[in-house]
Design brief:
alpha/beta; Uridine Diphospho-n-acetylenolpyruvylglucosamine Reductase, domain 2; 2 domains; 4-stranded mixed beta sheet; two-stranded antiparallel ribbon; 33% helix
Amino acid sequence: MLPILFVFVVCYQLTDSRRFYPHRKVIDEFKKSLTGYAIKPGDSRYQNVSTMKNSFYYRHPGLIVMASSVEDVQKSVLFAKRYNLHVTVHSSGHDYNGRSTADGSLMIDLSSMKEININLNSTRHAAGEVTVDSGNSWLGIYKRVQSVDRVVVGGSSHTVSPGGYTLGGGHSPISRSFGLASD
């Protein structure tokens, strides 16, 4: 019985990166450097932000960065690299396989980044181009693109965001006519 218990304790220590976060003062300095904000376990907002759409995969990130700019994302990645932290990226939480969060991870939440740029005079495509931040939902993107009489290859679930959707290939109801979102 003792060897089994020993293996469990060693595995827990090796996989639980919350034990290896830098000192509280270092985290507080990092939080001050952000234009967005960071949430630690115990914060009243933590439960709401860390809960995924598929509650079967509930995880406990060690720190959640609510990024509001590209610089926040860059700072978060560099911070994680410096302290050897596991990074996860979360936009809408629609990843039903639970990959957008992990126990002890530094979770970079992109849900506040919602810029949409439409360029109808694009030199890359005659119909124009749309650039969106990952925090947008497809419903918001569809409404904005429709306002300029265009369509975009996107998800059929309006609450999904474009980041994970596109990384998965981007299959759409209109893919036969216009290709994949990742094209």
